[in-house]
Amino acid sequence: MVSEKALYAIIAAVVLIGGVGIGIGYYHAITTAPVPVTQKETSLTLVITPNNYFKNATISHRQPAFYVLEPNGTLGSSAKIVLPSHTLISLTIIDYDSGVATNIGPNGTANVTSYTNFTGTVGNVGYVYNGTAQYVNGTLSGNSTNNITISHGAGWKVHHMPWNSTFGGWEVTHTFTILNGTQIMLNVPSWAGNNPNGGGVTHTSFYINQTGTFSWQCFVPCGNELDGWGGAMATPGWMMGVVQVD
Length: 246
Ligand SMILES: [Cu+2]
Hints:
Layout: H1 4-31, E1 41-55, E2 60-69, E3 75-77, E4 80-83, E5 88-95, E6 126-129, E7 139-141, E8 149-151, E9 156-158, E10 163-164, E11 169-170, E12 172-180, E13 183-191, E14 200-206, E15 212-217, E16 240-245
Parallel strand pairs: 1-5, 4-16
Antiparallel strand pairs: 1-2, 2-3, 5-14, 6-9, 6-14, 7-8, 10-11, 12-13, 12-15, 15-16
């Protein structure tokens, strides 16, 4: 058993050593040049597939859905997307769907053009990749396997997706929209394109400089029933969900 006197001696030694440690740490802190803050960055890749089988009591139909591309290559659920706050988030949407949206907005008959905009992204822009009429990315030249040159495009920089008068709709398949209550924090439209095989890649970046749990929703009525607002549009992990920002 340690005597009371010895115990006090040990406590005193611990306090003294700890104090010296703090002193060294403090001395170090005030004599070292400030370390440049490295910008925090992360990436989020969403994949839209159009032909997922949706079945409930009244719907038995193929429906589109957003997935999160996980680091191991699998498609994870988009029902709850966890993101860091105060971090540059590089968002890529790989969209296998196609076809213009005749209506866009908070109900099946609305035509609210703000949902065609890139809102809350860096510079309020996005970049569209794929063989659009406006911009062809990636051209191949050369005719032998030893002499192939691929010119990569820089993407078509857009503030908003246009109306396609030939097809009679907005060039938007779906939107990835994050809401704080009813306020739009982020709106990213995904390019519909006029490639008959469908498919496009849209890239943008954004910050969320607050923590909390928000909702995300697609604003193209792409579901079944309720003027397109049932089915996928009303089911977490399909065309809606939550975004938890830590
Ligand atoms: Cu949708």
